[in-house]
């Protein structure tokens, strides 16, 4: 495959990515093209980040910016119908699609949300920058930070987790984690919780949770995915009135104490 074909393939049909990558490569030498395209997951250069940030800032409102961050951080590859149920700002999804900040791909009878790698990297850089500035993270996917939060060995910026809106924890490469009984207390803003094993799903769970911890799951949860859920039931005290998606794959759960639709969920690995 030639260099130009590789560049087009990398853009995955995303107009904004085509503009950004094309602007980065125009007038550059062949060696520069080879270097740029050799690592498709490289951190965007300042020039590329500037163009992407300009598109993000042009959204012009916290509600739609928050929707973009949720989609780019957590919902890449997810069914569009589930995203629209999850977010109160679902009506703004079409605006993001029109601005090429995400795309909708039809697969058989379903529509899946896609976000280009450059935009996903931008989203996490925005989240990390905001966490440093505000000293409180809203979205977490770093194994070390989440482990400190769940074991209450938190950094000052993670104490209590009261600002955490979303947690995405991949335990594939983690060691054993012993969770505190009151771990979810105070997480009144938590809307998204995903604990997955993107690699080998065999074997015992790597996260050990006392049953009392489940009694403090916040009612604010709208999205709950927990592979190898370490209990046979969810507590009756958990009243998921806001829950729109539930997945407990590879779990021994036998009993649900409330009625909720079990939705298929898809995450990129």
Which labels suit this protein?
36% helix, P-loop_NTPase, Disease_R_plants, single chain, five-stranded parallel sheet, disordered C terminus, alpha/beta, 10 helices, two-stranded antiparallel ribbon, Apaf_helical, 9 strands, 269 residues
Topology diagram in text:
Blueprint: H1 3-11, H2 15-25, H3 30-38, H4 46-57, H5 62-74, H6 80-86, H7 93-98, E1 103-107, E2 110-114, H8 117-134, E3 139-140, H9 143-150, E4 166-170, E5 177-178, E6 192-196, E7 207-208, H10 211-214, E8 223-226, E9 245-247
Parallel strand pairs: 3-4, 4-6, 5-7, 6-8, 8-9
Antiparallel strand pairs: 1-2
Helix pairs in contact: 1-2, 1-3, 2-4, 5-8
Taken from the alpha-carbon principal axes, the silhouette is globular
Mean pLDDT: 78
Number of E strands = 9
SSE pattern, N- to C-terminal? HHHHHHHEEHEHEEEEHEE
What does the largest sheet look like?
A: 5 strands, parallel
- Count of separate DSSP helical elements: 10
* Contiguous uncertain segments of 5+ residues: 155-160, 257-269
- How far the N terminus sits from the C terminus, by CA atoms, comes to 25 Å
Strand sequence of the main sheet, in spatial order?
3-4-6-8-9
Strand content: 5-15%
Rg of Cα set = 20 Å
Classify the secondary structure makeup into a structural class.
alpha/beta
Helix content: 25-40%
């Amino acid at each position: 495959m030639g260099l130009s074909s590789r560049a087009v393939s990398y853009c995955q049909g995303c107009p904004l990515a085509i503009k950004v990558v094309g602007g980065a490569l125009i007038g550059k030498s062949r060696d520069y093209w080879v270097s740029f395209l050799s690592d498709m997951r490289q951190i965007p250069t300042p020039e590329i980040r500037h163009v992407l940030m300009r598109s993000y800032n042009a959204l012009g409102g916290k509600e739609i910016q928050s929707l973009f961050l949720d989609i780019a951080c957590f919902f890449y590859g997810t069914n569009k119908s589930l995203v629209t149920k999850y977010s109160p700002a679902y009506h703004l999804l079409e605006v993001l699609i029109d601005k090429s900040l995400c795309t909708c791909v039809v697969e058989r009878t379903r529509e899946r949300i896609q976000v280009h790698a450059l935009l996903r990297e931008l989203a996490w850089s925005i989240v990390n920058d905001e966490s440093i500035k505000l000293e409180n993270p809203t979205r977490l996917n770093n194994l070390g930070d989440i482990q400190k939060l769940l074991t209450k060995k938190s950094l000052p910026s993670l104490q209590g987790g009261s600002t955490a809106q979303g947690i995405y924890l991949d335990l594939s490469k983690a060691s054993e984690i012993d969770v505190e009984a009151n771990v979810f207390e105070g997480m009144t803003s938590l809307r998204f919780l995903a604990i997955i094993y993107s690699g080998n799903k065999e074997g015992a769970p790597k996260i050990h949770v006392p049953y009392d911890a489940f009694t403090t799951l916040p009612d604010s949860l709208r999205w709950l995915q927990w592979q190898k859920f370490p209990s046979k039931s969810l507590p009756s005290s958990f009243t998921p009135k806001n829950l729109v998606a539930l997945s407990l794959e590879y779990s021994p759960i036998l009993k649900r104490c409330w009625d909720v639709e079990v939705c298929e969920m898809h995450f990129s690995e």
